[in-house]
Amino acid sequence: MANTIIKFSGVNKRYGDTMALKQIDFELEQGKFYTLLGPSGCGKTTILRILAGFTDASAGTIEFEGKKINDLPANKRKINTVFQDYALFPHLNVYDNVAFGLVLKKTAKKVIHEKVIEALRLVQLSGYEEREISEISGGQQQRVAIARAIVNEPEVLLLDEPLSALDAKLRTAMQVELRQLQQRLGITFVFVTHDQGEALAMSDEIFVMNAGEILQQGAPVDIYDEPINHFVADFIGESNIVKGRMLADYQVEILGHQFECADAGMRVNEPVEVVIRPEDLVLTTVDKAKLTVTVDTQVFRGDIYEIMSHDDAGNEWLIHSVRKTAVGQQVGIYFEPEDIHVMRFGESEEDFDARLESYEDDADEKV
Amino acid sequence: MKKYNTFYSVPYVLWLLLFVIAPLVLIVYQSFFNINGQLTLSNYREYFGSGTYLRMTFNSIWYAFIITAVTLLISYPTAYWLSQTRHKQLWLLLIILPTWINLLLKAYAFIGIFSQAGAANHFFEFIGIGPQQILFTKGSFILVAAYIEIPFMILPIFNAIDELNPSLVNASRDLGATNWQTFSKVIFPLTLDGVKAGVQAVFIPSLSLFMLTRLIGGNKVITLGTAIEEHFLVTQNWGMGSTIGVVLIVAMVVIMFATGERKKKGGQRR
Ligand SMILES: Nc1ncnc2c1ncn2[C@@H]1O[C@H](COP(=O)(O)OP(=O)(O)O)[C@@H](O)[C@H]1O
Ligand SMILES: [Mg+2]
């Protein structure tokens, strides 16, 4: 990678007996929007703290622009943080909070003034300079926290679940604003969230984490379409996951039926898991169906009907349909071979990528 | 509901009337009588007219100031260190423990330690300085007074530091502040209320210390506390004693307002 800005090699972090991070390796490129996504307690904040310099890694190296920074104190790093709880200074007003970093650098008063005004304009808080922190709302505090960080023109901005305290509407608006801000500034963002929708909407690249490990890294679409395992599939959006068996390349057996699929490179008769997204399932009549299910519940969501159903083997199927059906009715479901995604048990991300590459090349040659 | 609330406040109100309001009224009342029981303003005239009383007032304030300063200098770093340690509740208990022991007992213990044949002089002999006069000096008075007051200073400061959100310290470092800048720009301003509370808790009682001035200070230090005691117990001039008491109470109220919390209106301007 040409302009790698941050590199973690073999980083782990131990708190007493708990391993908060196990063997973290990744590289971040300059100017991209990265998201660390995972459930609470999986180690997202710990990665940010190590990046910012608030805590040391127990092992491994952290590089910034090619130089090892393990021992560089936080105040010397060209990295700024937007804290989960904002951490605004309660004894200073909005202006002085934003100016804090510049004052420390002994910037000229006039320059400070210009930059603070500009930063507040960027986060749409012009005119709030003289307000006390206790006098502004949670959403405004969050934007002050962003302004306070970006006014220092960092190379990397770390954001720890900055939107989690906001209501749904403001949150969606801020997602768009943050993404635009990142593109305008052209700096690297490392954004932490446990909300998969947020991650999919904002990121260039997502790291899905669980229990101190990065399970999968990739563009939102890739992770959504080709999750590496049950956990990722389940965490990234709603999905139907059933047990299956690989009969041959591009042939998988589910619930006693054989289906054509888009996956290959596995052993014959290998037990696997199969993911089908609810929006890929189409309601049809029983005679045209690939599978037959009985409808349990149906909820209208405005744009779609959310239908819960079960098959004869007792597997649950979630279907997103634009057409409605009736509770208790037997319906057929139909899907295309590309809608089936096959996952192997215990496959590492490296092997997964290699396998995908091998048969995707095959497919290209066939065309 | 309302009725019950007033009912529960009865003991407190009674207490307040009997032991706070009544003595205050009595002191103010007494201060207008001279030693022969005549109503007069002469006590106040004498207080503000004589060099002796004014010098004593200055002495009281000066020593209370030194004691407070010494206590603060020792207590702030201690409280900060305490807040960072693992077993802070245990350490805190060890610091509070001496306050449960009677003041007189502690004073006598120090007399034992500082006396001619005491432990301190044994130590001085051992390191070759030879025995010194420690007891009945201003230094020993300040030392023992500070020793007694330190827990009352540490406690409010410790609480303020302990309540400080640790991510504020991280935020300060994140924005480029050195350790010292983080202390002076974030930690200290945000724990100032604890410092004020501690100064109040130490300075005000220190104004009227009198047991220690005699037992440890050997009357080398004469404060208003000593004077009050003399007037009530020795010269039996209750009027003059009360006058000094009134002056002390007024001084305390002034200090309480000066160090008390003021609601900040808007931002302070550059
Ligand atoms: N200071 C600490 N002391 C002990 N354990 C900690 C500390 N900080 C975090 N942990 C543990 O490390 C793990 C990861 O925490 P964290 O990075 O905060 O997770 P996340 O931000 O993903 O919710 C958790 O199990 C947490 O309990
Ligand atoms: Mg966290």
What do these coordinates show?
- The complex is a heterodimer of chains A (367) and B (270).
- In chain A, helix 3 (109-122) packs across helix 4 (138-150).
- Chain A is 28% helix and 33% strand.
- Chain A folds into 2 domains: 4-225, Rossmann fold; 238-366, no CATH class.
- Chain A is globular and about 75 Å long.
- Chain A has helices at residues 44-52, 94-104, 109-122, 138-150, 168-185, 196-202, 220-225, 230-235, 349-366, and strands spanning 4-15, 18-29, 33-37, 59-64, 67-68, 79-82, 156-160, 188-193, 205-210, 213-218, 240-248, 251-254, 257-260, 271-276, 282-284, 291-300, 305-310, 316-321, 330-334, 341-344.
- In chain A, the strands form 4 sheets. Chain A has a 6-stranded mixed β-sheet, sandwiched between helices. In chain A, strands 13-12-11-14-20 form a 5-stranded antiparallel β-sheet. Chain A has a 5-stranded antiparallel β-sheet with strand order 15-19-16-17-18, with no helix packed on it.
- Chain B has a single domain (40-269), classed as Orthogonal Bundle (MetI-like fold).
- Chain B is built from 14 helices and no strands.
- Chain B starts with a helix and ends in an 11-residue tail after the last helix.
- The relative contact order of chain B is 0.13.
- Mean pLDDT of chain B is 87; it is low at 263-270.
- The A-B interface holds A 52-54, 73-76, 79-81, 83-85, 87-93, 95-96, 100-101, 104-105, 130, 132, 148-149, 152 and B 165, 167-168, 170-178, 181, 185-186, 189-190, 264, 266-267.
- Magnesium ion binds next to helix 1 of chain A.
- Chain B: Keywords: Cell membrane, Membrane, Transmembrane, Transmembrane helix, Transport.
